[in-house]
Amino acid sequence: MGNRGGALHNNQREIVRPYKNRQWITCVLEFKSRHRSVMSPGRYTELFFLDEAVAFAAGHRPCAECRRERFNAFKQAWIERPLARSSQPVRAPEIDAILHRARLNEHKRKRTYEAMLSSLPNGSFVQIGSSAYLVWDDALALWTPECYGKSDRRPLDLTVTVLTPQPIVECLNRGYQPEIHKSFCTP
Prior knowledge:
3-stranded mixed beta sheet
């Protein structure tokens, strides 16, 4: 589960905005016996993802409260990425600001980029034609909202549209391994 920093819905449970602020996070479904009603008026809008790799493709990061261990691992990979520029301690708001610039273009639409499929780490998402695929080892797994579909061998000499924001791909390259839904299987 995740959210985008606040209420994206109105009192009629209609989505009225794509995000509230730069804090796009992924959370666990259960934490400290808290109970919520989905799309409660005036409360943050719950977003549901198949798995962490899908949430990353959407531009989310692990929550620093309910997923502290995963956040700390992500933060360590963040610090080690090639484009990291500071030796100062990294805080979630700085990560959020950089991710926000990487996930949306000047028209506030999803930012993508092109890369060689062979250069992408496990957990990256790519678009080929009109479909999205998870990259994992030598496989490409077709994504559907319910599960991963058929996996095919990954062609290495193909340039693809990358859906996962570049700073997250850099974290994946530095060893952060996202949690993957149980429906994924290699060819």
